[in-house]
Amino acid sequence: MRMKGADILCACLAREGVDLVFGYPGGAILPTYDALEASGIRHILARHEQGAAHMADGYSRASGRTGVVIATSGPGATNLVTGLATAMMDSVPLVAITGQVASPLLGSDAFQEVDVTGVTLPITKHNFLVREPEGIAPALREAFALANAGRPGPVLVDITKDAQTREAVFDWEGAEPRRHTRHLPPPVPEADLARALALISASRRPLILAGHGVTLSGAHRALLAFAEKAGAPVAATLLGLDAFPPGHPLYVGFMGMHGSPWTNQAIQEADLLLAFGMRFDDRVTGDLKAFAPYARKIHVEVDPTEVGKNVAVDVALLGDLREVLERLAPAVPALDSGAWLDRIAELRAAHDAPAWPPDPQGEGLSPTAVLRELSAQAPGAIWVTDVGQHQMWEAQVVPHGRPRTLLTSGGLGTMGFALPAAIGAKLACPEAEVWVVAGDGGTQMNVQELMTLTQEGLELNVAVLNNSYLGMVRQFQTHFYGDRRASVDLLAPDFGLLARAYGLKAASARTLDEAREAIREARAGGGATLIEFVISPEAGVYPMVPPGAGISATIHTPPPTEAPCSGSL
Amino acid sequence: MQRILVALTDNEPGVLDRVASIFRRRGFNIHSLTVSPTLDPDVSRITLVTDLDDRAARAAKSFLERLVNVHSVEDFTDAGPLLRDTALIRVAAGPADRPGLFQLAAIFRAEILEVGPESAVLACCDAPERIRAFVESLRPYGLLEFGRTGVIAVRSSGDPASALHPAASF
């Protein structure tokens, strides 16, 4: 059947099961928008293409489905860059579709032309430039297959305007994807499983490090079964915090730079690390030379390039984590790890006060107390956090345990991520309670998406922890730059007025009682609410491991300092 | 240490950029890079010469293999591959210099492509070190222009069968 390229594109989206896309129209993608209008696929109009990309990302993280974002050529396409890089770093399956100038104009510096396949080459899993309508279906099908094959990631399809308007035969079957299977690891050999089992059997102090791969491969149950059968404790990376039930007796906690000291110490004392779908990021390992000096290492990972990249491993099991765990679990022995669990309990007892982490020092509203109150009132929520101090407080304080309930930019650390990602998450899970947790800095980075939220009539709530600083940067300056506070004193608008201007309800809290009441009112419904929590300006995130130090080198409290050299606003 | 990586890739626009980007991003230098279609017109063969240590070479191979356009990658370094490089060299050589020049060409199995009143152009297809030696021996005449193709490599006939794409590696 002959169809216009844009109609072929929409037909492909529909056949891929896509019923919701995010984007922003413009000249070079107009034929596609015209076709979308008739296709029945819902389009969410963002206020900025970066916001649209994060929405697609949040949609994907919350639902497990592939997010789709559409933008025009040139500036529309370049505005996707941060969203694509964010998805790439956190292995989020995303398909980005961009318009491109007509093929005769390619390379001529035409109006709104940019070499977007060149620009996005290092931040996509793969990308395509399509110049012919015949190429649209093969590229789209391959893009969806690639985005989800093995280690997921973003794929971009750049389509010239004339390819969207000219006609071609739509041949879905003839466009069957071929390349996505090229580098998938073969099934893990039995011999490798046996080597892993031998190491596990010989271990007395095993520790599982659970990463984002647990969620991406749907391995939560398999992980729980494996850990319980082996009696092996489980620590989590930032993106692995929703991988394991936090109240479980085998759960050891959050590891890395702002992780629990006992979790990091357990890594240092372990004789075996089982790295499940995590990539030994430097925020997790600290100084590699000092990392886990006594531990043999088993790495279960779907991406071969991650094996041995940062940390040498004794056994690599290359494959889908869930499949590997389901094969390992029946043969894994129940380990004699009682003394090890006692040791971890002992490490924990030294720190695990009734309120962990201890509330930050300083005058004013405690951010951790606010987050404790939030999680107490909304225990089943999806938490979408921005990047900065609030992100780490949230990770330390709020218990996660159900898959896909913590959405955060872990790898790239993208400020401005949370609000648009939460919009995507709410659209993916309309019944879920969704909370944005952001700082005053990140909120101002993509604040325009509050209007998208209102236009779509979404009921999600935004918690802005306002300390009138770029707090994490200031904390680094305090410790590592002699407390010289260069460009962190951040003027913010009146968030209440701003929220109301965008059509949200607003509240402000300066005490815990006000916070409690504001959260209660926001949860009562009747529209989205932005709550500004005016927190202690000098609050820091502790514990903290200095960048580049070993993970035992924990800083527990801020250094004694003179009075702040610049006052809060 | 000189490393020789051979990759079979899709023969389509942009693939070389993707391959080279793997090296650029990590700050790995490429000494020589050759690309040509194989007998399968959809497949190209890329030969890369670098100076990576073992760990970096493993990483480079692994990152190359992750590229969607790459079919397979082999590290030929330890296989004692046969290497060939072609150089075109224009040297300052008048009529009086020709006998010596022709002798040198014969020793190095170089071809004399052209002789002019003040210069001559020679072509040499040989292992990279032989080309280097040939160039050094020509240097006293005065090198006017020099171009090389870069290295291509195949496994020696005594080696086990290559794991490269069978249809494209012959």
UniProtKB/TrEMBL annotation, chain A:
Domain Thiamine pyrophosphate enzyme central: 193-328
GO biological process terms held by the UniProt record: isoleucine biosynthetic process; L-valine biosynthetic process
Enzyme class: transferase
GO cellular component: acetolactate synthase complex
Gene3D superfamilies in the cross-refs: 3.40.50.970, TPP-binding domain (3.40.50.1220)
Necessary cofactors: Mg(2+); thiamine diphosphate
Residue ranges occupied by any Thiamine pyrophosphate enzyme TPP-binding domain in the UniProt entry: 386-533
Reaction catalyzed: 2 pyruvate + H(+) = (2S)-2-acetolactate + CO2
A GO MF label: acetolactate synthase activity
Coiled-coil region(s): none
A Pfam family per the record: TPP_enzyme_C
Co-factor binding details: Binds 1 Mg(2+) ion per subunit.
Pathway: Amino-acid biosynthesis; L-valine biosynthesis; L-valine from pyruvate: step 1/4; Amino-acid biosynthesis; L-isoleucine biosynthesis; L-isoleucine from 2-oxobutanoate: step 1/4
PROSITE patterns to which the protein is assigned, alphabetical: TPP_ENZYMES (PS00187)
Family membership: Belongs to the TPP enzyme family.
Name by which UniProt lists this protein: Acetolactate synthase
Native organism: Mesoterricola sediminis
Name of encoding gene: ilvB
From TrEMBL, chain B:
Keywords from the named record: Amino-acid biosynthesis, Branched-chain amino acid biosynthesis, Transferase
CDD domains per record: ACT_AHAS
Stored InterPro entries: Acetalactate_synth_ssu (IPR004789), Acetolactate_synth/TF_NikR_C (IPR027271), Acetolactate_synth_ssu_C (IPR019455), ACT-like_dom_sf (IPR045865), ACT_dom (IPR002912), AHAS_ACT (IPR039557), AHAS_small-like_ACT (IPR054480)
Molecular-function annotations in GO: acetolactate synthase activity; acetolactate synthase regulator activity
Entry GO CC: cytosol
Example of a GO biological process term: isoleucine biosynthetic process
Stored SUPFAM superfamilies: ACT-like
Pathway named in the protein's UniProt entry: Amino-acid biosynthesis; L-valine biosynthesis; L-valine from pyruvate: step 1/4; Amino-acid biosynthesis; L-isoleucine biosynthesis; L-isoleucine from 2-oxobutanoate: step 1/4
Key word Amino-acid biosynthesis present: yes
Reactions performed catalytically: 2 pyruvate + H(+) = (2S)-2-acetolactate + CO2
E.C. designation(s): 2.2.1.6
Residue ranges constituting the ACT domain according to the UniProt record: 4-78
Record Gene3D superfamilies: 3.30.70.260, ACT-like. Chain A, domain 2
Assembly and interaction partners: Dimer of large and small chains.
Family membership noted in the UniProt record: Belongs to the acetolactate synthase small subunit family.
Role played: Catalyzes the conversion of 2 pyruvate molecules into acetolactate in the first common step of the biosynthetic pathway of the branched-amino acids such as leucine, isoleucine, and valine.
Protein name (database record): Acetolactate synthase small subunit
Organism: Mesoterricola sediminis
